[in-house]
Structure formats: structure tokens, C-alpha cells
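Whiteboard transcription, Tuesday session. T.W. wrote the C-alpha cells on the left side:
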């Protein structure tokens, strides 16, 4: 099935803005997962590095704009056919810069479709949100009854190495995962206005400068709960893991973004290794 070309949005602002898209599909051919369809529109580009024969084919998403700001839009989709395997990751941390007054939000949409017997990975590196930025992001996954998905997203509140922090702006990060048409996970983070005060409020972020979510969805996922809790305890951050239905959900809060990154690399690597016998590491771009 060919992937439809996403429609370009009519320009809403006088400043030049990006409207990028990437569509990629993998299917199983004679027991081997192969690229079946590809569409890309600047500033989105997909690269396909060589990987070990035991690893799923890998697509690396990069944005040639060097970051995003108010009014920019990205539309990313991955489809994995029956019994195929594939990894979609990002080349580096995405940067969301300060929006001009009235300039709108950065709009990022990620859509994953995984068929029966298939395994997909969405391994996004950090999103760094600068002071005054406006981010509206949505992750949607549709899984068939026998599909498996490993997905991770994280947000860093500013760039602490440069003494920058996220004080004001807008962040809406929305997740929706369905299995066999039934909604099994819905979640949203909503920060608007005085984000520094919201972060400091009771039962909020404490001294954390970064937060992340890791989702593993498969029928055997709940059986990994004890292992994931043990793996998490070895890292210098706050991590909580829980399960429901066919979901394993891990939440992270870290005072340092580097601690969050180390935990995601370790735990996601261990999950993919234990569940599918894959390498106990994330794609090479995570280690550059």
C-alpha cells in the first residue's frame, strides 16, 4: 500500500516557516524486513544506515532546519507490515526555540501503525524546549492484536550547560495508543504560561530539568515489570514503572538531562534484548 503524500498547509504567517513530512513503510519479504515505501519533504530527511544482520532495518530522521520555532510543522509516520521489524530513531536532540509573539506553536505529529506479528521501535532522542517556546506534540500508535511497540520520548526544560531554563511558554505532549482498535493508553502533559511556577508546584517536577516516558506494548510486557524496576534503581533519577493490559509504562524525572539519557539507553536496550534477542543498546546515533 502506498503512503499518501501529506497535504501542505497554507502559510499562516509572514515569516518563513517549515512544513516537513516523512513517511516510511517496512514489509517482510521472504522472512526479511525491507523498505517498502518512502516519502520525505524538507526539512525532514530519512537516512538508512547499515546495521547488523540481526537488527531490524533502521531509519534515522533528521531535520535540516537546525531546530524548530513557532509556526513550524512536522508530520512523521511509520508503518510496519505483518511479521516485519523496523526501528525509527532521530539523529540528535530536537531543539524548540522561542516563538515570536503571535507566531503559533511548533506542531509535531508522529503516527505509528504496526501489523500482526510485527515489532516497531520509535526511539526519539531528547526534545530541548527553550524559554518562550511553544510546542504541541502528539504521538499516536495503532497496534494490531499481535503487534509489539517500544517507544520513548523525553523533554528537557532548557539547556542547563548554557544556564538556560524553560520559564515561560507552552508545552502540550499528547499520547494515544490503540490495540486492535481499542484505546489502551491516553496521556497528556500540559504546561502553559508561567512554566517555572508550574514545575515548582507541589507534586510537580521538583528539581528535575528533564522528564521522559518509555512505553513497551506487547502481550508479555507486564512480565518485565520487576526487571525494569530493578534496572531503574541503578540510575540517579526518579523512575516509576507500572503495567496495565499489554502495557509497560516507565516514567522518568531527572535533575540532569544526561542522567535521563543514560537511563533511557540502558532500560530500552535491556527491554529490546530480553524481549526480542536484539542488541542491548540503542542505535549508534544515540552514542555519537
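and on the right, the sequence the group agreed on:
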Amino acid at each position: 500500500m502506498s503512503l499518501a503524500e501529506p497535504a501542505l498547509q497554507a502559510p499562516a504567517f509572514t515569516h518563513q516557516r517549515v512544513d516537513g513530512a516523512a513517511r516510511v513503510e517496512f514489509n517482510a519479504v521472504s522472512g526479511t524486513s525491507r523498505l517498502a515505501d518512502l516519502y520525505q519533504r524538507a526539512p525532514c530527511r530519512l537516512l538508512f544506515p547499515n546495521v547488523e544482520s540481526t537488527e531490524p532495518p533502521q531509519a534515522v530522521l533528521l531535520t535540516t532546519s537546525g531546530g524548530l520555532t513557532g509556526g513550524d510543522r512536522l508530520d512523521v509516520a511509520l508503518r510496519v507490515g505483518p511479521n516485519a521489524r523496523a526501528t525509527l530513531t532521530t539523529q540528535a536532540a530536537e531543539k524548540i526555540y522561542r516563538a515570536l509573539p503571535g507566531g503559533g506553536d511548533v506542531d509535531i505529529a508522529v503516527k505509528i501503525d504496526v501489523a500482526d506479528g510485527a515489532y516497531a521501535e520509535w526511539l526519539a532522542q531528547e526534545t530541548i524546549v527553550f524559554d518562550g517556546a511553544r510546542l504541541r506534540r502528539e504521538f499516536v500508535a495503532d497496534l494490531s492484536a499481535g503487534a509489539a511497540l517500544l517507544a520513548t520520548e523525553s523533554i528537557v526544560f532548557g539547556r542547563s550547560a548554557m544556564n538556560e531554563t524553560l520559564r515561560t511558554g507552552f508545552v502540550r505532549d499528547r499520547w494515544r495508543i490503540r490495540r486492535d482498535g481499542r484505546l489502551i493508553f491516553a496521556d497528556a502533559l500540559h504546561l502553559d504560561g508561567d512554566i517555572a511556577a508550574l514545575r515548582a508546584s507541589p507534586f510537580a517536577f521538583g528539581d528535575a530539568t528533564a522528564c521522559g516516558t518509555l512505553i513497551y506494548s506487547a502481550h508479555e510486557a507486564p512480565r518485565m515489570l520487576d526487571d525494569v524496576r530493578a534496572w531503574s534503581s541503578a540510575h540517579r533519577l526518579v523512575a516509576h514503572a507500572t503495567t496495565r493490559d499489554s502495557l509497560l509504562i516507565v516514567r522518568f524525572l531527572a535533575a540532569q538531562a544526561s542522567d535521563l539519557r543514560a537511563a533511557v539507553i540502558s532500560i530500552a536496550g535491556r527491554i529490546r534484548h530480553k524481549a526480542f534477542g536484539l542488541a542491548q543498546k540503542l542505535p549508534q546515533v544515540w552514542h555519537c
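Someone added at the bottom: The chain has one domain: 19-281.
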